[in-house]
Amino acid sequence: MSTRKWFIGGLSITLCVLGGCGAGLAGKDSVGSVPLEKVVDYIHSVLAADRTFYTVHVVERMKTRGVIESSEKWRSERALPLPAQFFQESSSLAELTGSKVRYRLISLNPINKQNGPRTEFEQKALEAVRTHPEQPYKGLVKEEGGRYFQAVYADHAVSESCVTCHNADPRSAKRDYKLKDVLGGVLISIPVSE
């Protein structure tokens, strides 16, 4: 089974388990019988586990063994996607499931300017998780003509490759990251009916 099919299947199963099958994600403050606060926690734990596994056991391992490097230009070079690109690509694939759940990486010091805060909620959330990384920042927001329950979780440097990449990139506004530092946040959005 291809990685893409495996991911889409895994995400679909996860959303079904959380109560999203058939009914869609339309509950006012829950998905099925699971409160939205818990739903985003569940989604985040799956996303964080997948990204950490990819970073530590694929990117870091292949680099250490001298097999293959990761690169921002992975499509044109013989390279693995950077962990941030892996996350972005998986988010794009998740959209193909028809799920209205969205997620992306955001940062107060983004390497890619597209990943900076786009809203006042995102700005406040990033400041909050930088100060209290153990506590996600959650709330209801209106955007793009709809209401969303959003949560931002601290995104930590889980390996030396995270630290090296962020500190070495000439576009990086901050170049003194250490292992386990907060690089930014993981934003998860779930649509909520009016």
Describe the structure.
The protein starts with a helix and ends with a strand. Strand 6 (137-143) and strand 7 (146-156) form a beta hairpin. The protein contains 5 helices and 8 strands; from the N terminus they run H-E-E-H-E-E-H-E-H-E-E-H-E. It is α+β, with helices and mostly antiparallel strands and 194 residues long. 40% of the residues lie in helices and 22% in strands. The strands form 3 sheets. It has a 4-stranded antiparallel sheet, with helices on both faces. A two-stranded antiparallel sheet has the order 1-2. Strands 3-4 form a two-stranded parallel ribbon. Helix 2 (36-64) crosses helix 3 (83-95).
Topology:
Blueprint: H1 3-17, E1 30-31, E2 34-35, H2 36-64, E3 70-71, E4 80-81, H3 83-95, E5 102-106, H4 120-131, E6 137-143, E7 146-156, H5 160-168, E8 182-192
Parallel strand pairs: 3-4
Antiparallel strand pairs: 1-2, 5-8, 6-7, 7-8
Helix pairs in contact: 2-3
Secondary-structure class: alpha+beta
Give the helix tally: 5
Strand order of the largest sheet: 5-8-7-6
The main sheet comes to: 4 strands, antiparallel
| Amino- and carboxy-terminal Cα gap | 39 Å
Overall geometry comes to globular
Low-confidence stretches: 1-27
Query: What is the radius of gyration computed over CA atoms, rounded to a whole number of angstroms?
Result: 17 Å
